[in-house]
């Protein structure tokens, strides 16, 4: 039986409880995700967000800038022409007292090289992931060079609370 080309676009993308539990375990640093700073999500079978894998920085002693550069390189090499979502953690200094904090973020990676149908699907269905994971907003990026520590801090800053780098100059 033939289906219309747009039928998968009209269905709601699901995020089931098992995938949400993986996210909670990752966010809380539970095994097997301890030390993993990046969690990758993809839409499978045009109908569900799934965790495909996580990634640790090559070295915990690296600066935050280096760790985000590792992410940028990984995305360039492995997601050159396909989209994904990436939940991530970064360390930052927050507020007038420059207290150390760890921030969670969500990148929606939809490279320009993706077919229009796929770009549309990810753009349309990112709201489900944002809502279920309780993010206020996502950072939509289409060029790997935009994955940058300083830019991510700017996007993650809450009104009135500027974030600064923890990296030593």
Structural features, described:
With 169 residues, the chain is an alpha+beta fold. The chain is globular, with a radius of gyration of 17 Å.
Largest sheet: 6 strands, mixed
Task: Output the helix-strand order.
Answer: HHEEHEEHEHE
What is the strand content? Answer: 15-25%
The count of β-strands is 6
Treating each run of at least 4 consecutive H or I residues as one helix, how many helices? Answer: 5
Uncertain regions spanning at least 5 consecutive residues: 1-10
Taken from the alpha-carbon principal axes, the silhouette is: globular
Distance between the termini: 62 Å
Kindly state the percentage of residues in helix. Answer: 25-40%
Work out the radius of gyration: 17 Å
Question: Roughly what is the average pLDDT, rounded to an integer?
Answer: 86
Structural class: alpha+beta
